[in-house]
Write a structure and sequence with these properties.
Layout: H1 2-7, H2 15-18, E1 24-31, E2 40-46, E3 54-58, E4 64-65, H3 76-89, H4 103-116, E5 125-126, H5 136-139, H6 143-156, E6 161-165, E7 173-177
Antiparallel strand pairs: 1-2, 2-3, 3-4, 5-7, 6-7
Bound molecules: zinc ion (ZN).
Length: 184
């Protein structure tokens, strides 16, 4: 029946086809081999940091990439190549948009990322919103949420994360992940 055939075509208004993780700008989309609605791989950059860092993420499985083999941030071309390669073999079926975590779980994603940024040397690591690029698909929160989560961590775990005024000439706050305390 023609009518049911047409009914199964993806609706151009389907948000899953154009979903953009909060806090990001999606620059390219790839569909996997199963069809237009059966999973998508997005290439995106941070909407707020005017950076040249890109990431690729699959909405159908857990594939996330924000760095290359040498642990260097991805250019748009590198991210697109990874996305294209992943889309070519990913068999994930469509589960709709990734589930939105509750606030506690989202704050935990922020905390886990900060833990991974803990410096080995004596100088603190200054946090940039780009540091959360790889988490955006799972986090699904805007920049304000990320900042508020960091304020809360700085308030309760000051030896782990410090909040400091931004340098003169700009407004806002710098967040600094502190090195681990020296072992005795
Ligand atoms: Zn996938």
């Amino acid at each position: 029946m023609l009518s049911s055939l047409f009914a199964r075509r993806p609706d151009a208004q389907d948000p899953a086809l154009f979903w953009t993780p909060p806090g990001t700008t999606v620059v390219q989309r790839y569909r996997n081999t199963l069809g237009p609605l059966e999973g998508a791989v997005v290439v995106y950059t941070s909407a707020s940091d005017r950076s040249s860092s890109y990431a690729a993420a699959c909405l159908g499985c857990t594939y996330r990439a924000a760095r290359n083999d040498r642990r260097v941030r991805l250019s748009e071309t590198e991210a697109a190549d990874l996305a294209n390669a992943h889309a070519a073999h990913c068999r994930a079926i469509n589960r709709g948009l990734p589930a939105i975590p509750n606030d506690d779980d989202a704050a935990q994603i922020v905390r886990n990322r900060l833990r991974s940024l803990r410096p080995y040397g004596p100088s603190p690591h200054q946090v940039h919103l780009t540091d959360f690029l790889e988490d955006r698909v799972d986090l699904q929160r805007d920049d304000d949420f990320v900042k508020q989560a960091m304020f809360e961590i700085a308030r309760t775990e000051g030896d782990f994360l410090k909040a400091a005024p931004a340098y003169s000439g700009s407004t806002g706050t710098r967040f600094l992940v502190q090195p681990p305390p020296p072992r005795n």
